[in-house]
User: Which sequence fits this backbone?
């Protein structure tokens, strides 16, 4: 296999995963302070949403890469 079909397969899998789980959350540490033996950390929970059109576009490009290789 060459690079294009592998990239196409990866795009199809990532697009399908984004359709199945359109948003995910992660924790981001913003500020840290240390006063002697005490340590303070401010953490924020952020959510990233992946639009449906981006998922479908990734899958379409992946299918295009695989289909062009087979022709």
Assistant:
């Amino acid at each position: 296999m060459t690079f294009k079909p592998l990239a196409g397969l990866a795009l199809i899998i990532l697009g399908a995963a984004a359709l199945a789980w359109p948003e995910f959350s992660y924790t981001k540490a913003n500020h840290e302070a240390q006063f002697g033996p005490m340590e303070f950390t401010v953490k924020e929970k952020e959510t990233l949403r992946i639009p449906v059109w981006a998922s479908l576009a990734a899958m379409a490009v992946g299918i295009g890469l695989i289909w062009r290789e087979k022709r």
Summary: The longest strand covers residues 23-35. The first helix runs from residue 3 to 20.
